[in-house]
Amino acid sequence: xxxxxxxxLGCTPGDYWYFRTDGVDLPVRVEGxxxxxxxxxxxxxxxxxxxxxxxxxxxAELLEDTYAMAYYDxxxxxxxxxxxDTDRYxxxxxxxxxxxxxxxxxxxxxxxxxxxxxxxSWGGMLGTATLLDTDADVDGWIESAGSHDYxxxxxxxxxxxxxxxxxxIEAGGAYTSxxxxxQRRVDRxxxxxxxxxxxxxxxxxxxxDAEGYVDLAEGEYGEESYFxxxxxxxxxxxxxxxxxxxxxxxxxxxxxxxxxxDRLDEITVPSLFLYGDRDFICxxxxxxxxxxxxxxxxxEKDFILYEDSGHSLMVNRPRQYADDIIGFxxxxx
Length: 333
Hints:
Elements (H helix, E strand, L loop, with lengths): L2 H8 L4 E7 L2 E9 L5 E6 L14 H9 L1 E5 L8 E2 L8 H19 L4 E7 L1 H12 L6 E5 L5 H22 L4 H14 L7 H15 L14 H7 L4 H7 L1 H11 L15 E6 L7 H10 L7 E6 L6 H4 L1 H15 L1
Parallel strand pairs: 3-4, 3-6, 6-7, 7-8, 8-9
Antiparallel strand pairs: 1-2, 2-4, 2-5
Helix pairs in contact: 1-8, 2-13, 3-4, 5-6, 5-7, 6-7
């Protein structure tokens, strides 16, 4: 088999194009049901990540059966191209990129296309920034295990880690020594009135570790092969990881100073908040805060908590996750 044929078989059909905005070219890959008239614009996690690993899994397959999914790599990350000054590498600049991409999607697929922002993790910060600080005309907002307030996120993570650590230590399970280590480190961090940037990174590492010490639901797998993800995808996971190393530090430093909680009442579009009950990285209280604060009618917003689910709740509960998104969009489009 020739390499050309091999790569062809590894690719998932879709509309792949580059979008130029403020000095960079961003790779955009649109897959799924464009005839639906709905595009979900995926704002990937990170910073320093890529949309590549969101483009596979049962949740993605189910969403693409119903709507079109627009996967793109944010500036300085994944498969992006171009050069720009570091003073333009901010949350505001990436939010402006999102707003420009919303306009580009409508220019490409029709002015009547319904465009929804859909942000996971770091994408929650970017989606909130796009809604609050740009003129993006979007039809709805889906925040999945998102962090729209880094300082508050740190507080919630520390509280959750300390609470669960105490419970697990008392239960005397297999990871008691690991929980004792986490408990000691969190207690030291909370001795001071303010969590520093260094301590924020430390909390994030502990939060990821903690997910390995609790039982999480094992979700179903989709039919699409990982071969297409690693070989046929235009952006490789290795490239995405490498290219995002420097940029992630700059964006995290900027985001560390940003708190959108007190401005969430400025959000007026239909809003869905999806969080896992075992997510130490972006605890569910963040989503509940947002649900209670956004200025939309009760039937135009929802908060859903997934049991036995961590930060990658779409992996733990993929079918329920996709069904909940589809149901909400259908009710509010």
